[in-house]
Every structure is written in C-alpha cells, then in structure tokens.
Predict the 3D structure of the following.
Amino acid sequence: MPSGLLERHLIFVTGKGGVGKSTVALTLGLVAARRGLRTIVAEVGGDDRLARSAGAAGGAPFQEVQVSTDLFTISIGPEDAMAEYLRLKGGAFGGALSHSRLFATFAMATPGMRELLTVGKVWELSQPQRRTRDAEPYDVVIVDSPATGHGRGLLRTPRTFSEIAAVGPIAYQAGVIAATIADRSFTAVVAVATPEEMPVNETLSLHESLVNDGLDLDAVLVNACYPQRFDLPDLARLQKGNRRRASPQARAAIRAALSEHERATVQHEQRARLEHAFAERLMALPFVFSRALGMQELEKLADTLEDELG
Amino acid sequence: MNVEEILAGKGVCVCAGSGGVGKTTTAAVIALGMAARGLKVAVVTIDPALRLANALGLEELSNEPSLVSAELLGIELEGELWAMMLDAKRTFDELIELVAPTPERAEEIKANRVYRELSTAVSGSQEFTAVSKLYELVIEGGFDLVVLDTPPSRNALDFLEAPGRLMAFLDGRALQLFLRPTGFGMRIVGAGAGPLLGALRRVTGIDLLADLTTFFGLLGPMTEVFSLRAREVEALLRSDRTAFVLVTSAQSEPIEEAIWFRRRLDEANLPFAGVVINRFHHDLGSGESSEELESELASLVGADLAARLVSNLSDYHVLAARDAANVARLERELVDGEPLLPVPQFDDDIHDVAGLLRVQEYLFATDERRAELIENLIA
C-alpha cells in the first residue's frame, strides 16, 4: 500500500542492527531510479559501504557518486559535514575553525553535534535549491540511518538543538531541519525488521517513540522472510517416511526441509505481530539465498519491492 | 578450546560485535555457564529480549545486579549468577553524585540543560556508563567474573571510541581554551581572539555557548575525577585480567566488522580472547548428484515433494558455503591457536533458559564433544 512513499523527498530507513537496512535503502533507491527519479542513497557514519555494494570503487567519502542512471550514493561523515558547513556559513573564520583540531575535537564531542551535522547534510541534499555550489537537486534522498536508537537520535536531534540553543544560527538551522522532518508530505520514515522477536520489539517501540515525538512510521518492511515451502501434509509425509534406509544425502534433504518449515513457522508468528500493528503499511522482502548480495540480487529484490509498493 | 578455558583466571569478559549478532544472548550464556561452574558472576546487559530478561528475572532497568534464582531458572548452579540491565541515565546521575563536592552542586549539575542532554543522548553515554559500571562492579562488587554486553550499534568500534569522545567533551579543555581570549587555542590557530570567537559564536549560538560555559563551570575540578576514572577503566580493560570476546554471525558484514575489531584491539593493546560465531550454517551432507538424490527422495516421499526437497537443500548448501567462506576469511586474521567457536543456526529464536542451555552446550564443550554435537546436527 505505501504507494505514496516515493513521492516524498526525504526517506529515512532505520531498524535494529543486522536486519538489512542498507540493502533495503539501496533497493528502494533502485526502485526510485527505475521510475525516473533522480535519487541519492546517503549512508550515515562515513563507512563508504554502500558505494562498494552498488559496484562503485568506493574510497570517496562525502562525494556524490553515480552508480547507475539516476542513482547516486554518498557516505556522510560528521567531520566532512562540519568542514562543509563551516566553509559555507562561517566565512573566512569558519575556514580557520575547520582547520583547528581543538575546535574539531570539541565540536565532535558535543552531544548531538555529530547527528546534527549529519542530518544537516542530508537536509541539504534534499533541498530543491542546493546550498553546495553547482550541485544539482535530487528528487529523492534515501537515508541509510544508523541502528534504531541512534537513528531515532538522528530524527530528534534537530528539534532538541533548536530548543537548547534557543537563538543563533544553529538554533535557526536546526529549527528549519526539524520542520522539514516533521513535514509528512516531504519526509517519510521506514522501519526495517526481520521477522524475529527482537527486531519486531524494536520496531514497535520505535513506532511508539516516534508518535510521542509527533512523527510516525510511514512504512514497515519485514526483510529476509523465509519462503513457506512445505505445508502440514508435506510435513506429515516427511516425518512418517522411513528414513533409516535413506542415504545420508536424502536424510540431509529431509532434515533441511524440517528445519526450513520450523523457521518459517517461527517467522510467521513474528510477522503476524507486525501485520497486527501496521496492517497496510507493511511490506515484505524474501530471504536471499546467495553467497553475497551483488547488483543482480538487489535488482531482483527491487522487482519485488516495486510490486509491494504498488 | 571452550569458553571456560578462554576465561580461566579472567575477571572481566567484554562481549563486543556489531548489532544483531547475538551479543546479549552470548553474554548471558557465558555468565550462566561460568556460574554453573562455581564462580560468582555478574552479567551487565544493555537491551535483552523481553523473554530473555524475564528468564533472568530482570523485570526492569536497575542499577545494581540482583541475584538470579537458580530455582527459577530450573537448573543447578554451583556458583552464583547476578544480572542487571543497565540504566545509563541513572548510572550517570550516580557518578555525578559520587564526585560532586556537595549534594547541592550535584543537583545543580543534574538540572543543567547540557547535562540532561548529555546523560540521555544515546551515542556516547551508554558506552561511557557501561564501562564505568563495569569498573565499579569489578573493583567493589566482589565478583569472580563480570560479563559485559556492549551497547547496540552498527559499528562495533563505537564502543571503544565513544567513551573517549565523551571524555574529550567533559574535559572541556578545547572549549575552555577557546573561551579564554589569551588561551593556547588562539595562539595555535594564529588568528586574533576576537574574530575567531565571533566565528565560533556565529556557528554555535550564544545561548549554547553560555550553557556550556555554565556546565563546565559547575563541573570544575570534577572533570579531573572523570579523567581519572576513564584512565582507570582503560588500565583495567588493558590488563591481563580482561578478555575481549568478539561475537559475530557468519554473514559477510558482521565478519568484516569482526576483522576490523580484531585489528583495532591489537592497535589499542586490548586483550583479544576469541571469537564466537553465532548462527553458523553447517553443511548438511554433500557429494551425490542431485538427479540421483531426487529419484531416491521421489521413491520415499513422492516426486513433487522430492523436487522441493532438493531445491531447498541446494539453498542450504549456498548458505553453508557462504558461511564457510566468510569464517575462513576471519580465520586468516587470527593468530594460530586463537579460538573460534561456532554456534549453529537453530531453527527457532533463543530467548529462554532452555535456549541458553542449548547454546551453552556448544560454547563450553571440549573440541571432541563439539565435533560430536555438530555430527549429530547434520545426521
């Protein structure tokens, strides 16, 4: 259902560690680009992993790297974001500040400053009039956010700063960003979970805390779902069959099937909790059985996601 | 090798790794196993699954470990198991109360806006309070072993770096230098004090600056105590009483993290003790061609089901091959004899005592026994 998702300009993708946030962010980026939207997937934290998994060479943090038609990636580290901000806003002395290691140490250690600088750059990317010189605007900015707790910090920090700093440029800037995040026709938040207890718990509590902050989850994506390959009659036949005469390989095949069924069943229970909470907002992506997630696998996931988005 | 051998003579076990790899469960299993073997153990968890927390009798965040009833667990413990769920904000408050010269000063600090942000901001404070709590338990708790689960983050390195960042801030030296017009900061930047301070104000805002100044004013000499505590914690983590256990799954990203973390531990002179690999897919049989297998299965369960069994098994082979390749990559980073303990992917979530005991079997088994368990798993 979340058919309006790609009409938003700024999409935060968050979720517990290990649930495949980056994969989902990149897949969503592929879908947006297929629809002719100029799209950038922004990785936060400056690890430069995304560009690598999208096939680009990597090694160019803070650069907008084109990976295919209409699809770009960027890796945003707070240090680079600060240098850029100071260059743009601080004038000549801003430049001097950006070269001061003392100031950098202090700024990076100020609680919330890393998040604010990061989300500030994300905001800049999403603006129709880019602040960065000669930069072209994007239709969609997809943020591969840090794990839930920190991801929530990312969404909340601008508002906190606009309150703490009260007056002055940081307060003003933070206020503008906070308003952008709160504008639900512009910004969307997508949570990713695998159908397991902890990720589902975290998604439910993230939802609760976003609602408390006056925000909401626009879509929830349940990732890495096992296929339901065997039904109960199958299971009965597998358990009944006389396995003593079977070869080790045949026994392994039966063992693998029983275990697949068990996992799919456990997943089903957890998925039901998400369905109950999010109903129409829920989308699903299958588990990918492959050695590595390359472009080929991502394109296949994008096919599924296109269907899910409707 | 097993966990008992890895932790022989150790007083601290830090379970580190990237998010979603089973750190909390592994920490609980290690603590439970060592308590079963006669030690008085405390486990500090950050964010356990509700059912796991319930299993350990942890109903809410607390700041002191409480004794886990062996009766409630339904198992025999030769030693004692204590558990707590870290409350970062309260730990921070207690630290302030401990180091403030007067209770009034402590209250003033706790009411300061900068402090309130600082103590609840997720990044940094959890990491700092976790190691601070660890130190307290090790020094004053009277435990034989303290097991620490580390805060969830994508990047395992955060745990090592965040406390340092927080200390750099609390230290406040950078800012104080900037605020003093004749300070060292001004001289090394080489610009006149006035305009530079102006630029600083321009980009931060006067109120924030004033708040920060008040905050550092209040902290005053207390920052010395914080620095001292940080240095002591660092010394403890570097000592040979401590063991860092890396926890990872066999997927490629967590393995990459584990490799980075392994190198970082060396660079930082921190004692690495071994790797636990959760959710490992052991290869289920191999060799026979799939046509032969399919016709054999068809005779056992019918053609339609046989075809699905074969394709399902081949997906399993892919996962097993993936895991084996990733683990081999990690193994090349390890020095000979550094233990690597695989725990298989179970069919269901691990969230109760029975589940912990199942994992424990693998982590505390002798090499021979582990091989036997894996053999049984496959057959």
Remarks:
- Chain B touches chain A through 83 residues (CB under 8 Å).
- Residues 303-333 of chain B form the longest helix (31 residues).
